[in-house]
């Protein structure tokens, strides 16, 4: 998981960038004073404007941000209440701007609608780390960090494809998220593109749910009623997957494998127990919020990250959508969200 595992210390993620000034013998100058590590440095006040925690993943985002900030003696985190109302969130961010925080971390309720307040912060000299839902203009943020929705679908499709590659006339179904969201379209596109590599596999049905337990149960029940036989299911979201698993149990079905999405603790536990249809989930790591705090701290202290030749942090970081199954679930268990 690139730059997104909260269990990895910030010293391993954020280390030095070399000075612009060459030494007398043309060797690179020491980077010791440019290291963003766990040692206390310049005090940084980070304003955090996150989402309303009305979904397991969104709550995990907020928890990851707060827990990461608490690790650093040199970080003060100013946290808003969080909102899915764009006007309210704009007001919350403007309050942080007026407080003259050093850096802002923003997960916008709506990237397009909040672009102007991102621009406002940048024009006020406050660097913005744009988390997950991207602003419409790159001028509205210094750095973007988020997940890979297309990659989620792609990796889910390849995992299922490899499991079914030797089965003739294999059939798969898809339980998607909200169809009016671009992320849902990207996840479906990645899934479809992966399945093109397996000519023996046909996607025979797709049903869109609402990222809720209730919708997952209702829509999965419809899929099961309409499809008397299939070999694999990809479900976009582990929260709605709780409902999907209820519908599957109620129908008494165990004749297919299921792959989830996001990385909920309940999914990890079911995968580890390995006594049901759920065999894997594809990560959309909420630990991205911890990484956003690391990046904001580095920006506030004028430091860079290790492993790169450049002096500045990148303008974007896309996290990898790893597949978690029984072979590696123990590695990820501590990152699972409730």
From TrEMBL:
One of its GO terms (cellular component) is cell envelope. Keywords: Signal. The keyword Signal applies. Pfam families: Peripla_BP_4. GO terms for molecular function: carbohydrate binding. It is found in: Cell envelope. Residues 16-41 are annotated as: Disordered. It comes from the Bacteria. Residues 46-303 form the Periplasmic binding protein domain. Belongs to the bacterial solute-binding protein 2 family. This is Sugar ABC transporter substrate-binding protein. It comes from Streptomyces poonensis.
